[in-house]
Amino acid sequence: MDDLVAGTVTERDAVEAAARALAAARRVVVATGAGMSQESGIPTFRDAVSGMWSRFDPDDLATPAAFARDPARVFGWYAWRRRLMRAAEPHTGYDALVALEALVPDVVVVTQNIDGLHRRAGSRRVVELHGSLDRFVCAGALHPYPAEAVPESAADGAVAPPVCPQCGALVRPAVVWFGEMLPETAVRAAWEAAARCDVMLVVGTSGLVYPAAALPQIAGDAGATVVEVNPEADEGSWPALIRCRGRAGVVLPALVERLRRHR
Questions:
Q1: Residue 130 annotated in active site
Q2: So where are the chain's domains?
Q3: Which mean pLDDT values do the consecutive 10-residue runs of the chain (263 residues) have?
Q4: Which CATH class is domain 43-87+135-175?
Q5: Which residue is catalytic, options 91, 118, 130, 143?
Q6: Residue (of 111, 118, 112) closest to 90 by Cα position
């Protein structure tokens, strides 16, 4: 615990309180956002747009209309992002969540991220609300397309998308674009898990992106203990009962270590 980023007594007590809550829990939901993968070196969507993609409007990169208008440009954006994500490695916070599965009977990870890092780290039950860049479908009938056959890009140039061998439609990443609905099965699984959990860990998310931001409220309303893990105060309106200030790669391992002491 001596290496907590901001090691005040209050923050140390918060980790201990969170560990005690986990020790009494049978069902835990971990809700993660962009801050989780940012610690592995993956730029958030906002960071990427304000950086090398500042000359593009997000509406030109992440909407069905944009893909229909200029598929190579949009596909090139995601080919570039996919290369960055595949080069990244899960940090120690991901490993801690995998270890948590051995300490709590039922752990579900619900993530807004599309990078696949939770699965690569070894988490067994992952609900990907916004889809994943590890999966591809055609833009017509949503036929699956093998990810290993999809080209990547080392730069920000246009990349022609493959063509679906079943229907001839262009292939697109299986992610949720602006203006699209979240996958119904993922939403149902996330909402049901939130309503049944004893503890919800909210990690690396601002609490501003709905409907995912509603999950802590659902858990709290059902009587769960909500634990926030974030370097800074969140901007959301949901009430965290315990707030652990610090990076996920530091706080989560410390939390699991404390939990082991209570076992």
A1: yes
A2: 1-40+90-130+182-263, 43-87+135-175
A3: 44 88 97 92 64 58 93 92 90 98 97 96 97 96 94 78 97 94 95 97 80 88 93 62 92 96 84
A4: alpha beta
A5: 130
A6: 118
